[in-house]
Give the backbone structure.
Amino acid sequence: MDVIEKEEKKGSFLTELLQALVIAAVLAMIIRAFLITPFWIPSGSMEPTLYPGDRILVNRLVYRFSEPQRGDVVVFRYPLEPNRDYVKRVIAVGGDTIEAHDNKIYVNGQPLNESYLPPGVVHSDFGPIKVPADSYFVMGDNRNISSDSRVWGPLERRFVIGKAAFIYWPLSRLGLIR
């Protein structure tokens, strides 16, 4: 093999490596923008479901084909400051009437079963509030420290980014988000 052949093979390898890196970067950007986005939990407002420092994957695709449902944990742009992202649980959907009294949440007059809440959670009374169409009433699971729809009102659909789907860090908490 002469020197010219060695230089051609070296140039071909570098070109192929560069093409593979560009394709990988483009695919990563497409996946992050339209399918799955990593998200870091900054506060304890969703304890015990999510803890500060948890790293989760957000399914951005699911709400392109369906609407958020009661009980879903959603990531959204904070309506009062859209450059910040929040994570909360959907408690009521458009058309529902929600209220709280005697430390219990009622949706359309029926008590809400909230098995995800830790024992001893205390929250104040509110409502009744009629949730507008194409909006959601969202609350943190840690009701005592959560800034949520009780404070800033129903969340419009246009702010929803996706469904919090999976905890991938720390490994000791690896699993689906319920």
The chain has a mean pLDDT of 92.
